[in-house]
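Q: I'm writing up a methods section and want to include an example of the input and output format. Could you take the sequence below and give the corresponding predicted C-alpha cells, formatted cleanly so I can copy it straight into the document?
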Amino acid sequence: MANPLKGEVIRLYKNLLYLGREYPKGSVYFRERLKSAFMKNKDVTDPEQIKKLVARGDFVIKELEALYFLRKYRAIKKRYYEPEE
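A: Here is the clean output for your methods example:
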C-alpha cells in the first residue's frame, strides 16, 4: 500500500470502528464484518482502486450516521408524541 493512502485507510478503519459501537446488531458483529471487509482488500495496491474503496467506506460512514440519527429521531418522536389512532 502506498504511504500517502495508508493514513487514509487507517483513519477510515478507526472511524468505522468507532461508529460500530452503537450498531443495532452489536459491536462484535460489526467489528467482525469490518475486519473481514478490510482483510478481503488488504492486497490491493493500485492507488486508484484504494481511493475508490476509501470513498465507498466514507459512504458507509454517512449511511451509518443517517441510521443513528433516524433511530434517535424515532425514539424522541415515540417519547414525546402520542400515537394517533
